[in-house]
Design goal:
Elements lengths: L1 H13 L28 E3 L4 E2 L2 H7 L5 E3 L6 E5 L8 E7 L6 E9 L4 E10 L1 E7 L6 E9 L4 E8 L1
Antiparallel strand pairs: 1-2, 1-3, 4-5, 5-8, 6-7, 6-9, 9-10
Length: 159
């Protein structure tokens, strides 16, 4: 009987005013929290948003429940930003489980000039490295078009 009361108390604590399990714990959100996990291991939060990894979901965004993998569409993660003098740009692309896709990845300057391009075929999750020594200092756009017609563009700086 004691255990039933504890379980009921925990469940009622975890429910919000709509009677659903709480997805985001506002008091836990810490945007400046430093997750030292450099690996891209996406998780799908209970709110339907894909996060870089469990640390980012839980400590930075306050998400209380998630499952492994990308929620939907195409997920893109890259680092470092800014790219330093002789560094590589690491680009991670993921799709939901059991989805194999293609991607056209370009690095474009602010004038529209394509500096480098790679096409990756038939993958679910991939990491690609780009040598940034050929780029001058400036702002660039990472432009990724997936085979499902999704397009993601992200700005980054080369120092």
């Amino acid at each position: 009987m004691k255990y039933i009361i504890i379980v009921i108390a925990l469940l009622s604590y975890c429910k919000n005013s709509w009677g659903q399990i709480q997805c985001i714990e506002e008091s836990r959100i810490t945007p400046t929290y430093q997750c030292n996990e450099e690996f891209y291991n996406p998780v799908c939060g209970c709110n339907g948003i894909t996060y870089r990894n469990e640390c980012n979901a839980f400590f930075v965004n306050g998400v209380t429940n998630w499952v492994s993998g990308v929620c939907s569409g195409m997920s893109v993660d890259f680092y470092p930003n800014p790219v330093l003098l002789n560094a590589m740009l690491n680009v991670n692309i993921g799709f939901p489980e059991n989805v194999m896709a293609n991607a056209d990845i370009k690095i474009v300057d602010i004038y529209g000039k394509v500096w480098t391009q790679r096409i990756v075929n038939n993958f679910n999750r991939v990491q690609i490295q780009f040598d940034m020594t050929v780029l001058r200092t400036g702002v660039y756009i990472l432009l990724i078009q997936g085979s499902n017609n999704s397009v993601i563009s992200q700005k980054f700086a080369k120092n």
